[in-house]
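Final report, results section. Input specification for complex C-07:
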Amino acid sequence: MTKKGPVIGVFDSGVGGLTVLRELLLQVPQADYLYFGDTARLPYGSKSAETVAKYAISATQYLQSHGAEHLVIACNTATAMALDAIVRATPKNISVLGVIEPGAENAAASSKSRKVVVIATEGTCNSHAYQRALLQRGVEAREKACPLFVPLVEEGWTDHSVTEQVAHLYLDDLFNADFAAADALVLGCTHYPLLKPLLRRVVPANVAIVDSAEATAKCMAVSLGASDGHSIEPSVKFFATDSVEKFRRAGGKFLGRNIENVVHVDIET
Ligand code: DGL
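Structure output:
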C-alpha cells in the first residue's frame, strides 16, 4: 500500500461494519484503510464476552501487524463486551475507538426529553453498555434486542413486508409508558443503518434515528483533524476469515460500492 495518510484498521464480526467504513470513507478520506471481517466466526451477538474478547483481540492484532495505526471497533457487540480488553491488549501508541461512546454522545445531543430507545443484538443489550454511556450523559435508555434484523438484512430484505412486520413486533411497544416521550432511536448494530427507511415508517415521526456509524466516523474525523486535501481515493484492503467470494458479494450492499482486494485470513494459524 502506498502510504499517504494515517492507516485505520476497521474491525467487525463480518460485513456489517462496512456501514461504518462507508461513513469513514466519506468523513475521513485522507486515511488508508484495512478492514477485517471475522466472517468465519460471526455472529458475535449471541456469544459470551470471553469469546468475543478473544476473537476481537486476535483480529485487532492482525490489523496492527498489517500496519494499522488507529483501530475502529465497528462491531457494537465487540465494543460493548470487549472494548476494555482490546484497549489493554493494544500498544499505547495505537488509538482504539468503539462505536458506543460516539453513538451515545449523538443520541444525548439529539434528545430533548432525555429518554431514548436503543436497539441492538442480544449481547449488546445484555451488557447495558449503551444504557451506561447514556446515563453518564443524563439520558435514560430502554434497550431492546432485535436478533432477527441481522439475518433479514443479510438476506437483503431491507424493505420487505416481513421485515416491516418484525420491526412492528419489536418496536411498537417501546415508545410507551415510561418511554412515551422517548425522542431518539439508537441503531446499536452495524446492520441497522440499512433499515433506516423502513424504521422511519415504523417509529413515531418525532423520533430521531441516531446512527452509531455516522457518529463514530465523525469522532474519528475530529480526532484526526481536517483532511489535508488529498485528492486521491483512500485505499482499502479487505481481510475476511471465511469465503472471499461471499464477502465480496454480501459486502457490496453494506459499503454501497463494489468490493475488490479481499484477502482470506486463516486466523487460527
Ligand atoms: N456486528 C454485530 C454488531 O454490530 C452484528 C452481527 C453479529 O452479531 O456479529 O453488534
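The longest helix spans residues 49-65. Residues 107 and 165 are 26 Å apart (CA to CA). This concludes the modelling results for the funded period.
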